[in-house]
Amino acid sequence: MIQKTVLPLFLFALTASAQEDFSKFKSRNRILVFSTTSLQNENFTAQWDQFKSASKKLDDRNIIIFALSKGRIYDKDLKVVSSYHIAPLRKKYKIPLGYEGITLIGKDGGVKLQKQYAIEPRLIFEVIDQMPMRQREMRQNIDD
User: Fold this and answer.
1) How many Å apart are CA 47 and CA 18, to the nearest integer?
2) Is Signal among this UniProt entry's keywords (predicted)?
3) Number of domains in the chain
4) By C-alpha distance, which of 64, 74, 52, 50 is closest to 106?
5) What is the CATH number of the domain that holds 131?
6) Residue 48 belongs to some domain of the structure
7) Which contiguous run of DSSP H or E holds residue 107?
8) CB-side exposure of 138: number of CA atoms within 13 Å?
9) Which of 38, 42, 37 is nearest to 118 (CA)?
10) Do the domain assignments include residue 11?
11) How far is it, in rounded angstroms, from Cα 82 to Cα 73?
């Protein structure tokens, strides 16, 4: 009897703790979501590598990167992150199925930019650097 009730409770706990958005990063981090139909897609891998090689610029702007592919979300090391519900995440950030591109989510939780591959990292950094919150961050860094 105990075994029969433990499994449903365990599954419920897993589901209840899963995230439907990136709100745990709100006000601390900007999020870049790389969407692709395959992690082996040339456009995706080229774009991913470009941004990964700009880690200092990502860190300076408090950017965390994720990949979204085939109903799963992956961290910066392309390891599956199991704590997210993908359908609500796609809906909230307006990321259609089959989309091949980048979605920038600001510290306020809103979508700031959505572009198909290929996009120069410089463009993303320029968009972020024009944001009022980023302007404040840059002024504070100068004052420190």
Assistant:
1) 28
2) yes
3) 1
4) 64
5) 3.40.30.10
6) yes
7) none
8) 12
9) 42
10) no
11) 7
